[in-house]
Amino acid sequence: MRIERLNQDTKKNLLEDLLKRSPNSYGKYEESVREILDAVWERRDEALFEYTKRFDGADINASNILVTEGEIEEAYGTVDQNLLGVIRKALVNVRSYHEKQMQYSWFDSKPDGTMLGQKVTTLQRIGVYVPGGKAAYPSSVLMNVMPAKVAGVEEIIMVTPPGKDGKVTPTTLVAAKEAGVDKIYKAGGAQAVGALAYGTESIPKVDKIVGPGNIYVALAKKAVYGHVSIDSIAGPSEILVLADKTANPRYAAADLLSQAEHDELASAILVTTSMELAKQVSEWVKRFTEELSRGEIIQKSLDNYGHILVADNMEEAIDAANEIASEHLEIMTADPFNVMTKIRNAGAIFIGEYSSEPLGDYFAGPNHVLPTNGTAKFFSPLSVDDFIKKSSIISYSREALEKIHTDIEQFAEAEHLTAHANSIRVRFDGK
């Protein structure tokens, strides 16, 4: 990995480099995505089946698009029982964490006859997109489904592309069943996003679409926003390790590579106050890359978006981390909890050398669907909040309104909205 001194120029160049990975930078695909979405809007199932045949090679129709209980039972027979046990353990942790996020309606009444409040309502139906083929991640099924389940969503449906044989990856089916998905449809790509957003003869329209996918899926979600809600426009994975001279260079290198192996656009960054550590981590990265199964992908990721930045002090290092606003941030310092208090922008923060990033991906409980491409400056991880909506409650008695009606009328008239003022005035004009 390249080692550079941290300064304004290197930080600016790095931030510009990372922004190139955003789905917003891939406008050349938008026309193709728009064409697919328009076709699904106009021809519904017919277009959905045509694109499934073209892109996935599967003969899907109205009679076999819905995964059957028999197919799910078959999947259970092929999934390793030890893995099934791990999935169930992880589910307990994920459910327990998200249960602590629950919000409830509240009402505040006063003796003068006013009542204000907030009514919390769960979304009725949501759609979860799950990648298929080699990119099958049962952990993502758990993370996208469980907060919706905890929130109390009435119907959770899942779409995932089938193989050429018309079947869905067994681990995906098992994870979906364990998490409580109600229906699973064999559809992927932009066409599946369109089906969820608009509804077809086979797939019902949802209120919100969540879940990761390729550039076509990301751009399709962006395009249908407004017809439905979405979680976010997810970019490639990223990790930033913030370390001082006390950090274990072997651990830091291993953790950087845990994200670099995702794809060639993944980003792995070390920000440290120690040049010696920087050199040691670079050496360990080289050793590990030669040994790991996805070494070619890792190397391309590191060549394009791998950085080691050496800061003069921890304050500068923390400032850089806040500017980068990484999806995953690991803190490996002598006093990591003190450093954590100074972090403003990060999707998930991992504290201490035994809190490696994969712990969050699979098992600890917090959601691994996180803001990317610097959006941690204003976005949060997927949570129960993403599956509820809130309505304001206002109730005034005549007595309560009478005390303040002239104030409201004056405010409305100051904005030249006389009908607003009249709406209040008619209640007290004696007519």
Automatic annotation (TrEMBL):
NAD(+) binds at residues 129, 191, 214. Binds 1 zinc ion per subunit. CDD domains: Histidinol_dh. The active site is at residues 327-328. Its cofactor is Zn(2+). Substrate binds at residues 237, 259, 262, 328, 361, 415, 420. The lineage of its organism: Bacteria, Bacillati, Bacillota, Clostridia, Lachnospirales. The gene is hisD. Zn(2+) binds at residues 259, 262, 361, 420. It catalyses: L-histidinol + 2 NAD(+) + H2O = L-histidine + 2 NADH + 3 H(+). This is Histidinol dehydrogenase. Signal peptide: none annotated. One of its GO terms (biological process) is L-histidine biosynthetic process. One of its GO terms (cellular component) is cytosol. It comes from the Bacteria. Belongs to the histidinol dehydrogenase family. Catalyzes the sequential NAD-dependent oxidations of L-histidinol to L-histidinaldehyde and then to L-histidine. InterPro entries: Ald_DH/histidinol_DH, Histidinol_DH_CS, Histidinol_DH_monofunct, Hstdl_DH. It comes from Candidatus Mediterraneibacter pullicola.
